[in-house]
Write a structure and sequence with these properties.
The chain is globular, with a radius of gyration of 17 Å. It is of the alpha+beta class. Helix 1 packs across helix 5. Strand 5 and strand 6 form a beta hairpin.
Amino acid sequence: QLRRIFSRGSLEKGGRFYGGFWQTLPSKYRPHLRIDGYQTAEMDYSSVALRIIYAREGMELPDDKDLYDIGLPNWSPGDDPRRKIIKTYVNAILNDEAGNYRLPKTSQAALGVGHKVLREMVFERHKPISHLFNSGVGLDAQFIDSQIAEHVMLSMLHEEVLVLPIHDSFIVRAGYAAWLREDMKKA
């Protein structure tokens, strides 16, 4: 069973789907999931919270732009191990209204920059929306992405195709991956 979890006493903040056993599986095991005995594929929206926030500000970004590339030296597009740390930081500051969030020292060391420099790099890279950092806007973006997820799941279910959500990504039988990708774009 899935349930939606909303935040801060509002049905318009958060709202993501939780409770599926597949959501807690490490990503390296997910390709081994089967639906009715068939292999599965996982499709996701890249940098969904940031893309939603840019869109709300009237700015559309290319699909292939990595929004977590903040200009660190020797960045490896697509698979840089520092990407996950930056993603954690960015998503935290989208919701940290008090402005107190800091990465652990070990994460800062892995990035090769301290808190102040990281903050400056993120704010500079995302200057058009930097005024929204530390405003709680991330929970508004989560609500929108939860509505998108609901649309994708119900649309595919209407066609009798099961979709397992993992927030901004979805698992589906491999044979339906292209169909899912098209439905995700429509949503």
